[in-house]
Design brief:
The complex is a heterodimer of chains A (about 850) and B (about 160).
Chain A lengths: L9 H10 L3 H21 L5 H13 L8 H9 L3 H14 L11 H8 L4 H14 L2 H14 L5 H17 L4 H11 L5 H17 L1 H24 L7 E2 L2 E2 L1 H15 L3 H17 L5 H16 L6 H13 L4 H15 L3 H5 L2 H8 L4 H14 L5 H11 L5 H18 L3 H15 L5 H13 L4 H14 L4 H20 L14 H13 L5 H17 L4 H10 L6 H16 L1 H7 L8 H8 L4 H13 L8 H5 L36 H8 L21 H11 L5 H9 L34 E5 L3 E9 L6 E10 L5 E9 L4 E5 L15 E9 L9 E9 L2 E9 L7
Chain B lengths: L1 E8 L4 E6 L5 H16 L8 E4 L2 E8 L2 E7 L5 H19 L4 H6 L1 H11 E2 L2 E2 L4 H33 L1
Antiparallel strand pairs in B: 1-2, 1-5, 3-4, 4-5, 6-7
Helix pairs in contact in B: 2-5, 4-5
Classes of the chains: A alpha+beta (about 850), B alpha+beta (about 160).
């Protein structure tokens, strides 16, 4: 090397980087190198371009940005010599990918190099084209590649064949051009060409049905013969891998035969002999042999049925399955999954071994085995397999538990022979892995429980016992609390005993204990606590003797910081205390939930989400509409009016407490709601019944409330946060809640969906915002800004300006006046319209500037408003 | 089809990456992070396959290096193990009992060899001898060019003395 050359050698740079002790040192070295490379790039330095590019590649591997070197690759490729081209193409493949525009610039150089006299340069170009070409380049250069398939040197032919695979993948229309050249490639003796020719042939068959037919007719026999020759070939040191001549060629031939034999009896027949030979004669003590056997089994499985061969294949898999090598067991499980659809019985024979694999220490094997077990479950073995899986659940790996739980639940739901078994298994799962159970699963469980009327007593007793043992499983607690609320009387009185059950003694206080401990547990979330409150309300009626105790528990939630809990506990407290006469009717058992509707909804009704969106628009509540029971128990949403409209599609969700046939002169809610067809928009206590002509469209409800806004009633106080949900207009209900006037519930302003805010306040000025929304356009908020002058002098030339970030759009209307009288005697108002394109995701923010003249002096005040209510 | 080839050291350093399917720079570093987390933590006796994002990654450890190849679900994992071994043996012959340092300082050579083994994510040559011959031929082309350049500069140097 020239001692006067600038910069360091590649080797020295690598050494320097490796000598770095900290990441910061490394960054410093890299920065220095990059700087000198950049300098060389801008000087257009020719001598060290290849070395700089090599350095850049190393830096690139370390994860630093190297885009400035892309053009250097192109320059090196355009250079005449082989060394420059070699490093240039390497850089091209490393630093660029097919989606970069720069790549287009290389098309011309590639074309020249593909026609170069030096075959190694042709090889470089083919390699680069095969690894990174884009669809446009494929189209432009396909003729060159096609021609090279007949090049004199086999090493170019094989590269051209693989290059063609990429071209055909990028531009499937070009497939037919390659069909004829491939036929001659398949007749070659050179292993490399044969290997790549077969791969190209497989790709063409995948792309075009015609090509497949053509090859099937023309080449099947020849390929069978080639395979025979390879299998029977004598020892060839060049291709030998552990005693087998060229396993790679074996595997590719088997793969192509699979493609040709699939769905064609004649072709399948012609290859049966050689397949039998491969399956029986291949040595299986080394990986290479097993790889061939594995491929052979797959081919036997997918070609047309030839009696005997399949037995052979399944036997090989059986041998694989009992192999000590984990790799072999893994591929066996993988292949057995495909075999299940062909010969279920044969796979069932290995069930015990497969179940053992579910408990393997290797995560990959466990996962495969679980998938396979899932496929193997049927009516006859569901009980035994489920028992095995559930028994394994407590000792399984933490990471694996989620998958396992999901699969068990799915098996139980799909194949349970009877309800009692279903309930039993689900309880076991809930006890062991309740926290991993998905919402749909326990919702479905509750649906099943309500439908099994003869098992109510049994279920609630089992749950009671289970929840004593597994305290920390939240889902179990939810189901238990729900059932105790519904069927508490059956729990204490041992009603509906089954023969196999041992009677247990549970007092009313014990039952309340369960609910109380669940509501008090600090890990319980809002949904659980809300469910507990409802259960308590129900129990207060079922267990009159505990009424006072329940009231105390409910009262404790009155101070909850969660608005939903606070509000409900106040309501429920009032019901328990003051409305004894209606309580029992209010808390009747839930009607039986309709299983068909539920499963219909589960399989994805389109309706629900749509409805819920519109609901959301109406009152700004984000209700997740996916699962019906979420709606049923929709206390989970952390927005205040969660008990508001149920966005359910099923008529079984009339309302949480089902006051449909209530003793009050309220409207015939239920029937009317059913008529509406889509949905029942009732709130928790069914107070807010929809307007008679309301066909579940949310905006109607909103407009209704807006009409109501004027009617000042005690209820409005309550509906502060709930906004549109509780409607004063439903007459008969008024007295139910009239105890609420002086309630500690948050205060005053009768009202609008969003409380007004003081947006800005200084010594001299106060700015208040009042919000309103148009029904149907949740993104748009109307703001009425009113300004009050706190000083003793009037302001003139009063101008208000506002700015918002990009996701908001602001429209300012003219102010009512430009003079602001002193001492707050009158105010200036101005209307703003803000459209929030990220509605529901981002809250509004605004920056404001207010200028005015005070005693002929200009005053400027600025500020930022970020205390907008959420969901504007 | 092989979607990408990774060489990761036991410390999680990347020694070679080759992408046959398009991944952006961001995705690439994410893939490397994810996979080295998954693979380096696996015990020695476990199987050589991990399932990842609907693909399978076949890996094999040689001394301090993990050779990883990502393939489709339906591909033959056992064969990919053989391909990895095939590549390693060629490297071994080329460098003469290869070690990690060889691959660090001569990373470009490792790439040149890989380009003779795989193109477009498919196997190109099953004969180690042929690969060795092709790489050697290209190396000697480079050497010849270097010597020529050196002799020319010598002539120039003498002429200008």
């Amino acid at each position: 090397m020239n001692p006067f050359s600038s910069g360091t050698r590649l080797r020295d740079m690598i050494r320097a980087i490796r000598a770095c002790k900290t990441a910061a040192e490394e960054r410093a070295v890299v920065r220095k190198e990059c700087a000198s490379i950049r300098a060389a790039v801008s000087d257009n330095d020719n001598d060290y371009r290849h070395r700089n590019l090599a350095k850049l590649m190393f830096i690139h591997m370390l994860g630093y940005p190297t885009h400035f070197g892309q053009m250097e690759c192109l320059k090196l490729i355009a250079a005449p010599g082989f060394p420059e081209k070699r490093i240039g193409y390497l850089g091209l493949m490393l630093l660029l990918d097919e989606r970069q525009e720069v790549l287009m610039l290389v098309t011309n150089s590639l074309k020249q190099d593909l026609n170069h006299a030096n075959q190694y340069i042709v090889g470089l170009a083919l390699c680069a084209l095969g690894n990174i070409c884009s669809a446009e380049m494929a189209r432009d250069l396909a003729p060159e590649v096609e021609r090279l398939l007949q090049f004199r040197d086999p090493n170019i032919r094989k590269k051209a064949a693989l290059c063609s695979i990429r071209i055909v993948k990028k531009v499937p229309d070009l497939a037919e051009n390659f069909v004829n050249p491939v036929v001659s490639l398949l007749k070659e003796k050179h292993h490399g060409v044969l290997l790549t020719g077969i791969q190209l042939c497989i790709e063409l068959c995948n792309q075009s049905e015609e090509a497949l037919e053509y090859f099937r007719k023309k080449c099947t026999e020849g390929l069978v013969k080639v395979l025979k020759d390879v299998v029977n070939s004598p020892y060839a040191p060049e291709y030998d891998i552990s005693g087998i001549a060229d396993p790679f060629l074996h595997i590719r031939l088997l793969r192509l035969l699979r493609v040709l034999g699939h769905g064609d009896a004649d072709a399948s027949d012609s290859m049966s002999d050689i397949l039998a030979q491969v399956a029986t004669k291949t040595e299986s003590n080394k990986n290479a042999g097993n790889a061939i056997l594995y491929e052979c089994v797959e081919t036997i499985m997918s070609i047309e049925d030839i009696s005997g061969l399949r037995v052979l294949a399944i036997n090989i898999l059986g041998r694989f399955l009992s192999n000590r090598d984990n790799n072999i067991r893994y591929v066996a499980l993988n292949m057995l999954m495909k075999a299940v659809s062909i010969d279920d019985q044969a796979v069932q024979r290995h069930r015990v071994t497969i179940l053992e694999c579910v408990k393997d220490s290797d995560a990959s094997i466990r996962k495969r085995a679980l998938e396979l077990v899932y496929l193997l479950v049927n009516e006859s073995n569901v009980k035994a397999l489920t028992k095995e899986l559930i028994d394994y659940l407590p000792i399984s790996d933490q990471d694996f538990k989620g998958d396992l739980t999901a699969k068990i639940c799915s098996i139980v739901e799909k194949l349970s022979p009877d309800k009692i078994w279903y309930i039993d298994q689900m309880l076991k799962v809930l006890c062991e892995a309740g926290n991993l159970v998905k919402d749909e699963v326990w919702h479905a469980l509750i649906v099943v429980i309500t439908n099994a009327s003869n098992l109510h007593g049994y279920t609630v007793r089992s749950l009671y016992k289970a929840v004593q043992k597994s305290v920390d499983q939240e889902t179990l607690a939810r189901v238990a609390v729900w059932c105790i609320g519904e069927y508490g009387d059956m729990l204490v009185n041992n009603i509906g005993m089954l023969n196999m059950e041992d009677p247990i003694t549970v007092t009313e206080n014990d039952a309340v204990d369960v609910v109380e401990s669940a509501i008090k547990r600090h890990t319980s979330d809002l949904t659980t606590r809300a469910m507990c409150l409802i259960a308590l309300l129900k129990l207060s009626s079922r267990f009159p003797s505990c009424s006072q105790r329940i009231k105390d528990v409910v009262t404790q939630s009155k101070g909850s910081l969660l608005l939903e809990l606070q509000q409900r506990s106040i309501e429920f407290d009032s019901i328990i205390e003051k409305h004894q006469n209606i309580r029992s009717a209010l808390v009747e058992r839930m009607p039986v939930l309709d299983e068909a509707t539920f499963s219909g909804r589960k399989s994805g009704s389109v309706l629900a989400p749509g409805v819920s969106t519109s609901l959301k628009s109406a009152n700004g509540v984000a209700t997740s509409a996916a699962a019906p029971l979420v709606d049923l128990l929709d206390l989970g949403a952390d927005e205040p009016p969660a008990a508001a409209p149920n966005s359910s599609g099923g008529n079984f969700l009339h309302d949480l407490l089902d006051v449909g046939p209530s003793p009050f002169p309220s409207q015939p809610v239920t029937t009317q709601a059913q008529k509406s067809g889509t949905d029942v928009l009732l709130d928790l206590l069914s107070i807010g019944s929809p307007a008679p002509e309301n066909s579940s469209s949310a905006p109607d409800i909103l407009s209704l409330t807006q009409d109501n806004k004027t009617s000042v009633s005690p209820l409005d106080t309550l509906s502060l946060a709930t906004g549109p949900t509780l409607q004063a207009s439903s007459s008969g209900m008024m007295d139910l809640l009239d105890g609420f006037g002086p309630s500690p519930a948050p205060p005053k302003d009768n009202g609008p969906a969003y409380p007004p805010i003081v947006a800005f306040e200084s010594n001299s000025l106060r700015l208040t915002f009042n919000f309103s929304k148009q029904p149907g356009s949740p993104q748009v908020t109307q703001i009425e800004a009113s300004f009050a002058n706190k000083s003793s002098d009037a302001y003139t030339n009063f101008i208000f300006q506002a700015a918002v970030p990009k996701f908001l759009q602001l429209h300012l209307e003219p102010a009512s006046s430009n003079t602001l009288p002193r001492n707050g005697n009158g105010s200036v108002t101005q209307k703003l319209r803000v459209t929030n394109s990220q509605h529901g995701k981002k809250s509004m923010v605004m920056r404001i500037r207010i200028s005015y003249k005070l005693n002929n002096k200009d005053v400027l005040e600025e500020g930022q408003i970020s205390n907008f209510p959420r969901d504007l | 089809m092989i979607h990408f080839v990774l060489l990761i050291s036991r410390q999680g350093k990347v020694r070679l990456t080759k992408w046959y399917s398009p991944y952006t720079q961001k995705e690439r570093s994410k893939v490397i992070r994810e996979l080295s987390g998954m693979i380096l933590t696996r015990g020695p006796k476990l199987c050589n396959f991990v399932e990842w994002r609907g693909f399978k990654v076949v890996y094999k450890r040689y001394a301090s290096l993990y050779f990883c190849m990502c393939i489709n679900q339906e591909d033959n994992e056992l064969e990919v193990l053989e391909i990895i071994h095939h590549y390693v043996e060629i490297l071994d012959r080329y460098f003469g009992s290869v070690c990690e340092l060889d691959l660090i300082f001569n990373f470009h050579k490792a790439y040149y060899i890989l380009d003779e083994v795989l193109i477009a994510g498919e196997l190109q040559e099953s004969s180690k001898k042929t690969v060795a011959r092709l790489v050697a031929a290209q190396d000697s082309l480079v050497e010849a060019a270097k010597e020529e350049a050196a002799s020319i500069s010598n002539i120039i140097a003498q002429a200008t003395k």
